[in-house]
Amino acid sequence: MERKVVGYYRTSSLSNVGSDKDSRKRQRHSVLSFTKSNGMKLVEEFYDEGVSGTLDVLNRPQFLSMLSFCEKNGIDTICFESSDRMSRDLLIMETGFHYLSNLGYKLISVSNPDTFIEITPTGTLIRQVLGVISQFEKSNLVDKLRVSRERKSLLNKSRGYISRSGRGKVEGRKFLTQLYPQLEELVVSYRRVVDKRTRKPLSYMKISNLLMTNNDLSVSFNSVKRILDDVKMKKREERNRKRRKSTIPSY
User: Fold this and answer.
1) For 15, which DSSP code?
2) How far apart are CA 8 and CA 2, in angstroms?
3) What domain count does the chain have?
4) Which of these, 244, 231, 240, lies nearest to 161 by C-alpha position?
5) Both 124 and 190 in a single domain?
6) 2 to each of 5, 14, 41, 42, 161, how far by Cα in Å?
7) Rounded CA gap, 50 and 62, in Å?
8) CATH number reported for the structural domain that contains residue 104 in this entry
9) Interatomic CA distance for residues 161 and 184, integer angstroms
10) Is 145 part of any domain?
11) Domain co-membership, 122 together with 161
């Protein structure tokens, strides 16, 4: 009789989640291949999307759903791709392992099936070494991403994509001017129009109304102000760049 098991998958970053991404497909392929070749029946799968490996297992929505499913269906075996799907944090991995073991669950890392089975000094050592490696890989990845963000920030600043703090924009939602390239030019042109009644440039609210009436663009008056502030900031940055260039001595 085939042993019934469940599969658990986890991906930390939401940017790696989706039908066009490889993370879940890769994890599922590994678990399916292992269970089929070892006479096991994969009856259900659970996937925590955008859940950090440093989060305790009992704070993961799909992990809790999995435990509930296992309890209702008399399943005691959980399969996953590798130890870092359980956790990249050594303490979280060990506490999770002992908690689940005390409940009677068997954990199988298909990349190294003995990792969570041997409750011996050797098994513990292997588990902890793998945990340390996962922690190192995570720290190394964080450093690489930080350097990449800094490099992209400098590049975007040179292109005029500047955050409110004056740094090159890297993360977060796109500016309206990035979504609608013609918007900045429209706002600036409307701002140059003089209100006949007040003899001052058009107010932010009037520009907002004109954008909706003439261009079918819904832009709040606060966004109009931010766009104009961004234009001033970009001009200031451009002047500073030219000033810095002019001060570089030529040989």
Assistant:
1) G
2) 19
3) 2
4) 231
5) no
6) 9, 35, 6, 10, 58
7) 11
8) 3.40.50.1390
9) 12
10) no
11) no
Instruction: Tell me how long the chain is.
Output: 251
Tell me if 36 is assigned to some domain: yes
Q: CA-to-CA distance for 223 and 229, rounded, in angstroms?
A: 10
Residue with the two structure tokens 């002992």: 98
Both tokens assigned to 54? 């440093």
Give SS3 for 36: helix
Determine the pLDDT at residue 155: 66
Instruction: Give per-residue pLDDT as tens, 29-75.
Output: 999 999 999 999 999 999 998 888 778 888 889 998 999 999 999 99
CB of 62 within 8 A of CB of 46?
yes
- Global confidence as pTM: 0.48
User: Does 164 map to a domain?
Assistant: yes
pLDDT tens digit sequence for 182-223: 888 888 898 888 888 888 888 999 899 988 888 888 888 888
Provide the domain limits for residue 219: 156-247
In 81-138 the beta strands, taken as DSSP E runs, fall at: 106-109
* 8-state DSSP, 114: T
CA distance 65 to 70: 9
Residues 109 and 167 in one domain: no
Q: What single DSSP character describes residue 166?
A: S
Residues 74 and 182 both lie in one domain? no
The DSSP string of 173-208 is: SPPHHHHSTTHHHHHHHHHTSBPTTTSSBPPHHHHH
Does a structural domain hold residue 55?
yes
